[in-house]
Write a structure and sequence with these properties.
The protein is α+β, with helices and mostly antiparallel strands. It folds into two domains: 165 residues, Butyryl-CoA Dehydrogenase, subunit A, domain 2, CATH 2.40.110; 337 residues, Butyryl-CoA Dehydrogenase, subunit A, domain 3 (Up-down Bundle), CATH 1.20.140. It is 54% helix and 9% strand. Strands 1, 2, 3, 5, 6 and 9 form a six-stranded mixed beta sheet that branches. A three-stranded antiparallel beta sheet has the order 4-8-7, with no helix packed on it. Helix 4 packs across helix 5 and helix 9 packs across helix 15.
């Protein structure tokens, strides 16, 4: 760094008991991958086109929309010029230039192109992929409607096949059928992949995908029968033109239905797919990526809040003494250090689900559906669990930074605005958790019949009569056992409640609807247990040196112990933990906070986020917080004029009027 490092921050790094480079290499796939990542980040940092631009926080919405577009186009060109083809490296490059800023081409590149590859026939791919990859055709994914979101089967947009012309008639029959929310729909794209109810030969064949052109590819003017526009400002994603779309009997060729799995023949005969869930592959892909992205948000928030907590001094501990670093207050540690553990846990979980999709989806697409239920359940569950946990965690980090956390200068509001929408997009979280619960109920039924279970559901075989093996050393295996016991018991309780209600005369559906809270508890516990076990596995089996493994073992224990203490009722309801064991865990929580304290700053350094990504005055690597805040304040556009026009328009006339009133009274 060019400036001198804050003395408190330098001392924090000097007292660390491990080398953060080893942990950084674990996070990003080895030393060569880390070097490559830093090289790409430095290219962005030194890029003359990207330097000296107006700060994001000081831009209005129109400026943010335009900035997002030119950055998108410029970065796309730069990655091509540099020969960057890896999707992960493209993410690193973009993050360094536009961290937590909407990507106008994000859905086109990350969802539309994969959808064409996964859902279109070879002939369709040959026609559409070159146009999509060259940006001649720019598309978005139009599923959500004004009146329908996660309930996909209830979508109202229709695609009615006309065998006389071999065309589909795309129509928005009601106001609530208006497509609403798709990113880049408002002003950017010229095509949409539209999810619509397929009608052919007089019957409804369910939801299918159709490629619909909505704008002229040369003039960009909306086509006849198409009404499209931007939906206005939102809570975050100000750079994105999320849009609405209405189609008035727009005709498209039969070939514009994506027909890799399901087909409509020329005469209107419908051929159904081998599995209806194959149509949701694109959503599964996005859900898998969300787990890692929200984890990154929390990790960056932890970097900012923990560095700031080491620099910020507040309140003398003893009268006349030096003000203490706020990181030394146990309450600050209690709020932040478990979140540090959470960020690592969710990053590792995100890596797992991304790898699971990469390895299993090709098999699924080829006709092997063995792993499809697991993939759907885990992508839904980790997306929901991660989005809730990380968005709440980012807000806690912001609160831990006091008043400065409220300012955009901290970088934390921008991160929160990027993270929290994940709780609702690509599936509302509670609905997704109930999808996980449905998977668990099916696995539980299989277990009760003596059938084999999927690998993710083996925890259901836990002996619920067993009690915890927890002792003073708080072994990792005992923590995992506790989480699996909790999940298995809650699944069993939910299943038993459903059966009890059926026994009282309720239908299966009524019993399910009367048990959804219990089902949610079970699904949440399942996700939590998986994240803990995956964290343990990564720490114990990952490529770490002894010093790093020791620190990460403490952090892993802290994450697990904190999770038990904050959900204590679910762990002690059946007496699994004794009162003595609860006391052990409470004592261990406090000792783990003290164990993490010397390494807290170095642990967040291991995330290896440069200042250009954090964009935080209070989370800087050099810790020069107050100079940065002062410089930031001076950049405010309001300071371009010493006296604002509003003074002359409103304040001065009021002052003059008040003076006249006073004189008249004299």
């Amino acid at each position: 760094m060019a400036s001198e490092v804050n003395a408190d921050l330098a001392r924090e790094r000097g007292r660390a008991t491990f080398d953060p480079e080893n942990l950084t290499c674990l996070l990003y796939g080895g030393s060569s991958a880390v070097k490559r990542r830093r090289y790409l980040q430095n290219l962005v940092k030194e890029d003359p086109v990207l330097k000296g631009r107006k700060r994001w926080a000081f831009q209005n919405r129109e400026e943010r929309v335009e900035t997002a577009m030119w950055k998108s186009m410029y970065l796309d060109k730069r990655t091509k010029d540099l020969g960057i083809t890896s999707s992960r490296e493209k993410e690193y490059f973009r993050e360094a230039a536009a961290a937590h800023e909407g990507h106008p081409m994000g859905l086109h590149l990350g969802m539309i192109i994969p959808t064409i590859k996964n859902q279109a026939t070879e002939e369709q791919q040959k026609k559409w992929l070159p146009m999509a990859e060259s940006l001649r055709m720019i598309a978005t994914y139009a599923q959500t409607e004004l009146g329908h979101g996660t309930f996909i089967r209830g979508l109202e947009t229709t695609a009615t096949y006309d065998p006389r012309t071999e065309e589909f008639i795309m129509d928005t029959p009601t106001l609530t059928a208006t497509k609403y929310w798709p990113g880049a729909l408002g002003k950017t794209v010229n095509h949409c992949i539209v999810m619509a109810q397929l009608y052919t030969q007089g019957r409804n064949c369910g939801i299918h995908m159709f490629l619909v052109q909505i704008r002229d590819m040369d003039t960009h003017i909306p086509l006849p029968g198409v009404e499209v526009g931007d939906i206005g400002p939102k809570f975050g994603f100000e750079e994105m033109d999320n849009g609405f779309l209405r189609l008035n009997k727009v005709r498209i060729p039969r070939e514009n239905m994506l027909m890799k799995y399901s087909k409509v023949q020329k005469d209107g005969t419908y051929i159904k797919p081998p599995s209806e869930k194959l149509a949701y592959g694109s959503m599964v892909l996005l859900r898998c990526s969300i787990t890692g992205s929200v984890a990154s948000c929390l990790a960056q928030a932890c970097v900012i809040s923990i560095r700031y907590s080491a620099v910020r001094r507040q309140t003398e501990v003893s009268p006349g003494g030096e003000e203490a670093q706020i990181i030394d207050y146990q309450t600050q540690q209690y709020k932040l250090f478990p979140l540090l553990g959470t960020s690592f846990a969710m990053l590792f979980a995100g890596e797992f689900i991304s790898n699971f999709y990469t390895t299993k989806y090709p098999e699924i697409a080829a006709g092997n559906f063995e792993f499809l239920p697991q993939l759907h359940a885990m992508s839904a569950g980790l997306k929901a669990f991660g989005a809730w946990t990380c968005s709440e965690g980012v807000e806690t980090c912001r609160l831990c930074c006091g008043g400065h956390g409220y300012s955009h200068a901290s970088g934390l509001p921008k991160i929160y605005l990027d993270c929290t929408p994940a709780c609702t997009y690509e599936g509302e979280n509670m609905v997704l958790m109930l999808q996980v619960a449905r998977f668990l109920m099916k696995e539980y039924t299989k277990m009760m019949k003596g059938d084999s279970l999927s690998s993710l559901a083996e925890f259901l075989r836990s002996d619920l009569s067993k009690r915890s093996c927890m002792t003073e050393d708080v072994a990792l295996r005992c923590l995992v056992m506790g989480y699996n016991h909790r999940a298995a018991r809650l699944v069993s309780d939910a299943a038993s409640n459903i059966q009890k209600l059926i026994g009282k005369g309720k239908s299966q559906l009524e019993a399910w609807n009367s048990s959804t809270v219990r089902l949610f508890w079970a699904a949440r516990a399942f996700c939590h247990a998986f994240v803990v076990e995956n964290f343990v596995k990564t720490v114990t089996e990952g490529n770490l040196d002894d010093q790093t493994r020791t620190v990460m073992t403490s952090l892993c224990k802290l994450y697990a112990v904190h999770g038990i203490i904050t959900n204590l009722g679910e762990f002690i309801q059946d007496g699994f933990f004794s009162s003595t064991q609860v006391q052990i865990l409470q004592n261990k929580l406090m000792s783990l906070l003290a164990d993490i304290r010397p390494n807290a700053v170095t642990l967040v350094d291991a995330f290896d986020y440069p200042d250009s990504v954090l964009q935080s005055c209070i989370g800087r690597y050099d810790g020069q917080v107050y100079q940065a805040l002062y410089d930031y304040a001076k950049e405010s556009p309001l300071n371009e004029k010493e006296v604002l026009d509003s003074y002359y328009k409103y304040i001065k006339p009021a002052q003059t009027s008040s003076k006249d009133v006073r004189l008249s009274r004299l």
